[in-house]
Automatic annotation (TrEMBL):
Record-linked PANTHER family: KETOL-ACID REDUCTOISOMERASE, MITOCHONDRIAL
Domain of life: Bacteria
Domain annotation KARI C-terminal knotted: ranges: 220-362
Pathway: Amino-acid biosynthesis; L-valine biosynthesis; L-valine from pyruvate: step 2/4; Amino-acid biosynthesis; L-isoleucine biosynthesis; L-isoleucine from 2-oxobutanoate: step 2/4
Taxonomic lineage: Bacteria, Bacillati, Actinomycetota, Actinomycetes, Kineosporiales
UniProt similarity note: Belongs to the ketol-acid reductoisomerase family.
Cofactor(s) essential for the protein: Mg(2+)
Residues engaged in binding Mg(2+) 1: D228, E232
Keywords in alphabetical order: Amino-acid biosynthesis, Branched-chain amino acid biosynthesis, Magnesium, Metal-binding, Oxidoreductase
Family annotation (InterPro entries): 6-PGluconate_DH-like_C_sf (IPR008927), 6PGD_dom2 (IPR013328), KARI (IPR013023), KARI_C (IPR000506), KARI_N (IPR013116), NAD(P)-bd_dom_sf (IPR036291)
Protein known as: Acetohydroxy-acid isomeroreductase
């Protein structure tokens, strides 16, 4: 069991299924403790102004309220400079500067540029860090790359991670909502890779609480990147995209018009399914159905789960082997020539523009077959992570909470591109690469099995589902859920 010590915040233990985990609950009442958590830090650098960089810089600045300087560092000629200035970070007030100059002048450096840029510039970044500084990451991608190269972080620095379980837009949006509802925010994991100063844990917890995390749980940097890279390629982004694309076509083939097919696929997943799972868990969703609807859920689940399990295992293997990290780096080079393609040009997303214009959220259909397919793939990811030994909090957040509370609301509001393309470049690439695989296998394997009365669907999978320990994990996590839902403009 992972555990940690803190003298600044209150550590508590929660029981998740058959295990105990140490966590720290957040809240604005703790902001006054942040200077103590950051003892020995005179300046915090936020390097980059992407989805996470912009959100984290603003949240930390607002939480610290002038008690500690937060400075944004950007590469010379960065196109993000004007956006940072518009948010109040300027050269005139000393809160905006050139990337390497800011790194050299800071005690805590939060490296939030793209993963590909981290790989390209890591040697220069390491050279610019002052001895005894703390390097902060929000993703373990760089560790995965260093492992491949047989390289290490500099030995004279702390290396910590705070990884919000949601896109940057959610990190900022829920933080702002927290001004009215204390505790509203995005959960985060933290990891300590190197602790030279003896202050690494306090700084990581202070960083997480300063971002507005309702609760912070512990993991390792390696476990984080394995689960995060896999999750965003599976149920969080790529998987859900492939699911709804395949379902939409299936409903059209069954005779539904464009709007109704969208209602039964996308709107169903991002609306009533996500809302129910967020507050009542997967078992709560299952219990919404009885009679023929329960049978439809069970058959759909039994058809989708094996497909999802095989594919999530493949993704995990690609991440663990380093293949997916290499793929992202190679794609980063291709992007310089080809750019990022669109993902919302299919007929479904055109139909969605019309459907969203006439949508009544209170009357959206809860389709049992759609629910079974979605839950089957989600549980396949959960079981993959259980098998690989990830901690319960990480499994619940990377497989369920992030999907329902942070990501799916964006697809509900404006479609898949609004969800995926508010995420990191690594996530965007992974979603584009793997969504077609989910679409293909569901269409080629799961749906034919559903339609074939002679198909031997393993309904015994539902017994394992009903008895699964993740339901108790989600029940405990739901008790720490903020009382507000994210508001997406």
């Amino acid at each position: 069991m992972l555990t940690f010590e803190t003298s600044v915040f209150e550590r508590e233990y929660i029981t998740l299924a058959d295990g105990r985990e140490a966590i720290v609950r957040g809240g604005r009442h703790l902001f006054d403790r942040l200077p103590s958590a950051f003892e020995g830090v005179n300046q915090i650098a936020v390097i980059g102004w992407g989805p996470q960089g912009s959100a984290q810089a603003q949240n930390l600045r607002d939480s610290l309220a002038g008690k500690l300087k937060v400075v944004v560092g950007l590469r010379a000629g960065s196109g993000s400079r004007e956006a940072a200035r518009a948010a109040g970070f300027t050269e005139e007030n000393g809160t905006l500067g050139e990337m390497f100059e800011v790194i050299a002048a800071s005690d805590l450096v939060l490296l939030l540029i793209s993963d590909a840029a981290q790989v390209e510039l890591h040697e220069q970044i390491f050279a610019a860090l002052r001895p005894g500084a703390t390097l902060g990451l929000s993703h373990g991608f760089l560790l995965g790359f260093l492992d491949q190269q047989g390289a290490r972080f500099p030995e004279n620095i702390d290396v910590i991670a705070v990884c919000p379980k949601g896109m940057g837009a959610s990190v900022r949006a829920l933080y702002l909502q927290g001004a009215q509802t204390n505790g509203a925010g995005i959960n985060a994991s933290f990891a300590i890779e190197q602790d030279v100063s003896g202050r690494a844990t306090e700084r990581a917890l202070g960083w997480s609480i300063g971002l507005g995390a309702p609760y912070t749980f512990q993991t390792t940097l390696r476990s984080e990147y394995l689960s995060d890279l896999t999750g965003e390629r599976a149920i969080l982004l790529g998987g859900v995209h492939g699911i709804v694309e395949s379902l939409y076509r299936r409903f059209r083939e069954q005779g539904l018009d464009e709007t109704e097919a969208y209602r039964h696929s996308v709107d169903c997943v991002t609306g009533p399914i996500s809302r129910t799972v967020s507050k009542e868990g997967l078992l709560g969703l299952y219990r919404r159905f009885d009679g023929e609807e329960r049978t439809a859920f069970r058959r759909a689940y039994a058809a989708a789960y094996p497909v999802g399990l095989e594919l999530v295992h493949e993704i995990y293997d690609e991440v663990a082997s380093g293949n997916e990290i290499r793929s992202v780096i190679l794609a980063g080079e291709r992007l310089k020539r080809f750019g990022m393609g669109t993902i919302d040009g299919s007929p479904m997303w055109k139909a969605g523009e019309v459907a969203r214009g006439t949508r009544d959220d209170e009357k959206l259909v809860l389709d049992p077959g759609t629910a079974g397919i979605f839950c089957g793939v989600m549980m396949a990811q959960i079981d993959t992570f259980f098998e690989k030994g990830h901690p319960y909090s990480e499994i619940a957040n990377e497989s369920v909470i992030e999907a329902t509370d942070s990501l799916n609301p964006y697809m509900h509001a404006r479609g898949v591109a609004f969800m995926v393309d508010n995420c990191s470049t690594t996530a965007r690439l992974g979603s584009r690469k793997w969504a077609p695989r989910f679409d293909y296998l569901l269409t080629q394997v799961a749906y034919p099995a559903l339609e074939d009365p002679r198909a031997d669907l393993d309904l015994g999978l539902l017994t394992a589902f009903e008895e699964h320990p993740v339901h108790e994990v989600l029940r405990v996590c739901a008790q720490m859920r903020p009382s507000v839902d994210i508001f997406v403009e």
